[in-house]
Amino acid sequence: MKRPRVVSERKRAILERSPPPSNRSRPHFWLKEEKRSDVEEALAGTGPLPLYISRTAEAEMRNHSISSGNQNLEAMGLLLGDVFAHSKKSYTVVKNVVTTDLEASGVSVSFHRNGFETLFDRLDETDFDYVIVGWYHSHPGYTCFMSPKDIETQQRMFREDFHFAVVLDPLKLQIEAFTLHGEGCISVPFAVYQEEHEDPYGRKKLSLKPR
Ligand SMILES: [Zn+2]
């Protein structure tokens, strides 16, 4: 079986870069009211938020969780992006997501054992150098939180500071991001940012409105 391209086996220095500007960053429209004002406050303040998710990645995760949720199944995939630093704080940017065939039910999900080849192909097709910065999965109808099994996955696979877990509930229209903290996970503020897109016909630059 083909293995995915490994971008770097070495720990590389974190690049200094300004986070997506606040006029192109918004709280997610599925975010609960009190969390939404936290994000707005953080965006108005100085220093980066811990996590920024592109409109593209956000839409992919949301659509995946909605189409699976319509069949009462959980969805899951990996978050691809990069880690940067600004004002002595590091932050994670999710540029895209990948997924593959899943072994899913209404309350559990994992990659199908035959799905890895597709997953590795999709990782290979990614047109930017990426770091796997976490995972997303959905809880259709039972709200966003990290279950004991989710926390175990986070501890086993995503234990770095730049690793996050995004949980979506496509039936209750909720989303939340988490990271490890002590023995458990805590909710973290994140923004959805609008990228500048090249027009596929190469005529002009166009940009998508953030949600
Ligand atoms: Zn879960």
Please characterize this protein's 3D structure.
The protein has 211 residues and is of the alpha/beta class. It has a single domain (27-58, 75-192), classed as 3-Layer(aba) Sandwich (Cytidine Deaminase, domain 2), CATH 3.40.140.10. It is built from 4 helices and 14 strands. Strands 1, 2, 3, 4, 5, 8, 9, 10, 11 and 12 form a 10-stranded mixed beta sheet that branches. The radius of gyration is 17 Å and the shape is globular. 36% of the residues are buried. The mean pLDDT is 88. Residues 137, 139, 147, 150 line the site of zinc ion (ZN).
Number of helices: 4
Shape: globular
- The helix/strand class is alpha/beta
Number of strands: 14
Task: Look at the structure and give the mean pLDDT.
Answer: 88
* Low-confidence region ranges: none
**CATH top-level class:** Alpha Beta
Radius of gyration: 17 Å
Question: How do the SSEs run, as a string of H and E?
Answer: EEHEHEEEEHEHEEEEEE
The named CATH superfamily: Cytidine Deaminase, domain 2
| Assembly type | single chain
First-residue to last-residue Cα separation: 39 Å
Helix content: 10-25%
Give the domain tally: 1
Biggest sheet, open or closed, and with what strands and sense? 10 strands, mixed
The bound ligands are: zinc ion
Architecture (CATH level 2) name: 3-Layer(aba) Sandwich
CATH fold assignment = Cytidine Deaminase, domain 2
What percent of residues are in strands?
25-35%
